[in-house]
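sry for the spam today, last one i promise. struct tokens for design, 138 residues
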């Protein structure tokens, strides 16, 4: 399944999110985030001038530990390397955790369909494969 550049770069959500720093004091830092169909981009400033971090959806295992307090919704993104990245967003908004989760599910579904089609194409390309399948049929 080939996707056009417009489909890959489609913005699903854009706005502010707070990320817990990795240092010892673990301060919450406000970040400008852009979620696309392919990645979560995190910038230090609102103009997106600084070089941002790109977290590809293929490197995200799950969105975990969702907790709602009076003011914030806290959630953790777990990467495929089991690194945990903590975020929080205001509780009154359509929160980021749900949008990221849905984008991740959509990405995984698209990848599964692409893998299935690739496997089908590979099987149909090898002529002996069909004969072997027919030989196994009752």
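last one done:
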């Amino acid at each position: 399944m080939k996707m056009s550049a417009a489909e890959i770069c489609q913005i699903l959500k854009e706005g502010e999110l707070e990320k817990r720093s990795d240092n010892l004091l673990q301060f919450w830092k406000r970040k400008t985030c852009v979620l696309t169909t392919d990645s979560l981009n995190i910038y230090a400033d609102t103009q997106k001038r600084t070089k941002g971090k790109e977290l590809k959806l293929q490197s995200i295992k799950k969105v975990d530990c969702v907790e709602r307090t009076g003011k914030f919704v806290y959630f953790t993104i777990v990467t495929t390397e089991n690194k945990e990245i903590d975020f929080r967003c205001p509780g009154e908004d359509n929160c980021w955790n749900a949008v990221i989760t849905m984008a991740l599910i959509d990405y995984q579904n698209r990848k599964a369909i692409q893998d299935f089609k690739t496997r089908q194409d590979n099987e149909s390309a090898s002529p002996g494969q069909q004969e072997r399948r027919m030989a196994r049929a009752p």
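The two ends are 33 Å apart (CA to CA). ok im logging off now
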